Amino acid sequence: MGKITGFLEIDRQDRKYLPAADRIRNYNEFVIPLAEDAVRDQAARCMDCGIPYCHNGCPVNNQIPDWNDLVYRDDWEEACRNLHSTNNFPEFTGRICPAPCEASCTLNLTEAPVTIKTIECAIVDRGWQEGWIAPQRPAAKTGKKIAIVGAGPAGLAAAQQLSRRGHEVHVFERQAKAGGLLRYGIPDFKMEKHHIDRRIAQMEKEGTVFHYGVHVGVNKSAKDLDREFDAVLLTGGSEKPRDLEVEGRELSGVHFAMEFLPQQNRRVSDEPIGQVEPILAGGKHVVVIGGGDTGSDCIGTSFRQGAISVTQLEIMPAPPEKENKLLTWPDWPLKMRTSSSQAEGAARDFAVMTRRILGRDGHVRAIECVRVDEKMQAIPGSEFEIKADLVLLAMGFVHPVHEGMLAELGLQLDKRGNVAADTATYKSSIDKVFAAGDMRRGQSLVVWAIREGRQAAREVDLFLMGETTLPR
Fold first, then answer.
1. Would you say the pTM of this structure is higher than 0.85?
2. How many CB atoms lie within 10 A of CB 339?
3. How confident is the model at residue 458 (pLDDT cuts 50, 70, 90)?
């Protein structure tokens, strides 16, 4: 490492946020980047730790100590090249990844891990600014045609890898634009959509062909793809939301998070929301059921729309404030975390179960809750009500949508309802049909989708060509 004693001499410094009162006035990103010299100092903190567990903590196995050292030595261009050797889209992960690499950092044993995510984002942003990130066109074409269904992070990563290999890659996306949940789920204040547009432009110049408004299994036959292409990769995501089966679920004002969030993203992008009922939080008491990232996105969006109050409910008990590092490190710990959206003023309550949704004149007015014990059993006498004009269900996703494409193909599913395919080959139960990302593994992180897309691309290339040089 360039500065062996850097971790002893330099304190951890991370990016800061604009004040909540300022940032909730718009949908712009609000993270304040570090200055270049500050990033270099933070990179100097990376230890010569012998076994860099950050490699394992990162799903795409970024070579973190290597590009930290390059930044410290002021070789930003080589750092950018190194970063892209394992991650097709570091500007996405540098903004929205929860950074399991930092949890695995040796310095996390003293609560001061290297600011890996911040350094990653600084490298790729400078790479775009300096023009180091350019289309990589293949030297020769293979003559093989590949269909990829779904333009989320898994599909995009696979498409870029396979196009650069020389295959003719066609991506079929049912929405009007590429990105999947990156575009239609994650709010702009966490990641503005020009980052996606820039990558799509790069991929088009590399030869990837995008087909928008094509819903395979609905307005295009899945079996036609099987006949027309040499290989088919399914990366459609896990889109079947977990529902809340209680009395009053049918009331007006009760919606899935993924009915609410895409509408606002479309408004910000001047894209029509379609023939649907507008869902708006302005002037309302909002209750978000579900304590994960999607729930936090609902909170931040509700505040920006002018909600009077936002309450987030989680059925699980409150996690500990700090983990027992001797038991958990270098694995991802269960501990209390407060997102930027939660910090904007949301009330949070744990170990709470919704018993029923109460209404008046067909519209939600409150929810009736009860506290639960460690066995998820209701505690007698703990019932209470919360005023609610809008209830958003953010309890996760159970599996991909089975109707349409999967039913038409007759693919074998695993016991959780995902497409059955292992990580050795990513092959489905049908010859030449592969599956990757959330469609195969269930709902997960964007960085895991990128990993699976890259690995699936290698297996598709190996299947078609009998050999491959694509990275595992």
1. yes
2. 19
3. very high
